[in-house]
Design brief:
It contains 4 helices and 8 strands, in the order βαβββααβαβββ. It is of the alpha/beta class.
Length: 182
Amino acid sequence: MKYNIRGENIEVTGAIRDYVEKKIGKLERYFDTPPTSEVHVNLSVYNDEQQIEVTIPMTDLLLRGEVQHIDLYAAIDLVVDKLERQIRKYKTKVNRKFRQKGAPKHIFAELEKEANQKEDPEEIEIVRTKRFNLKPMDSEEAILQMDMLGHAFFVFTNAITDDTNVVYRRKDGKYGLIEPTS
């Protein structure tokens, strides 16, 4: 794997770079062939809190983990754990689909002993479905509606573009807007 390690309000020293590459490099054991994509790692420090974001874009999957912690090295360990859980969950889902179809193809390397010990039996279960009409409005009105409802996101029809958009509250307290691309 190739690494793109960036620091925000922190200097990426050789020791930090080596630790990140060593820890994230351990994820290669989950794949038959190591991903050829570039691993994006963003390290940042805000108010004495270390944050690490790791993104590994692959053909059929986007692995992404984000962790905040007081200690940078602990944050790196935690984000690798989070990525491992994502891989195991995806591996279980993919292998289950292939077994049902009878196809012998496996995307991930067989780690039977470890998989049997640590396998997450979590199933994705939708427990509630909501249906509602999307009212045309601008993003400011959507943010007001979201705040009034006390939600972290709000889906609406953009009155200008007539597309379905989503506004959401970011961890920093500001707002984001998701728009579809044409």
